[in-house]
């Protein structure tokens, strides 16, 4: 528990630093583009069109998901994916790609994955805002269930930080972990309820197996909040999700604190 306390203290004490570095990270990523940070919105829009063309038209996955049109259902799933995917892949290499820069500084290494993730959170907020506006004109106005959204956004951030503490530490020790993460993310897109509905195609045992994935909880939570489907937050699934996150935080903080003094030796 002392490992977890150490990491949490570093996050709280360096909150302002995380905020500044995340903004710098986001700006520096797009500084050489003529359209600048507008690409943070254009890229997802292009991918949405491609995914809908392939899955909505090509594979003819056009049936409504319950009472929700497939296109609307898919957009909300992709909304989460566009935040989660770069956060996990870039968070996993956050430390070893920056360790030389901070090795001679009194810099809290545990905040590096955090500010990388937060830099992806700003475009996520912008996309949520645009999606909420679109939903107003497509028959899904803001309802009382919308107040769940901040909870699921915060849950996603905490989950990503917990996961990145593990992957960024292991990737610094062995670069193969980064390649493994990238490969798993390609698979995860298709085994998570983003582009197709498991409720329509899978038996109960397979659906239960898919729900082991914490991203299932987060994506369905976003949909419940934005579409007004009910109080997804009040379920035993929430207890499972937070149990997984706490275990990941314990493992990630223990690994990070144990090995961070030796990170420079693995370069």
Question: What can you tell me about this protein's structure?
Answer:
- There is one protein chain.
- With 267 residues, this protein is mainly alpha-helical.
- 70% of the residues lie in helices and 0% in strands.
- The protein has twelve helices and no strands.
- The chain has helices spanning 2-13, 15-29, 39-58, 70-92, 99-102, 111-136, 149-173, 176-188, 198-201, 204-210, 214-227, 236-259.
- Helix 1 (2-13) packs across helix 12, helix 2 (15-29) crosses helix 6 (111-136) and helix 4 runs parallel beside helix 7.
- It is globular, with a radius of gyration of 19 Å.
- It starts with a helix and ends in an 8-residue tail after the last helix.
Secondary-structure blueprint of this entry?
Blueprint: H1 2-13, H2 15-29, H3 39-58, H4 70-92, H5 99-102, H6 111-136, H7 149-173, H8 176-188, H9 198-201, H10 204-210, H11 214-227, H12 236-259
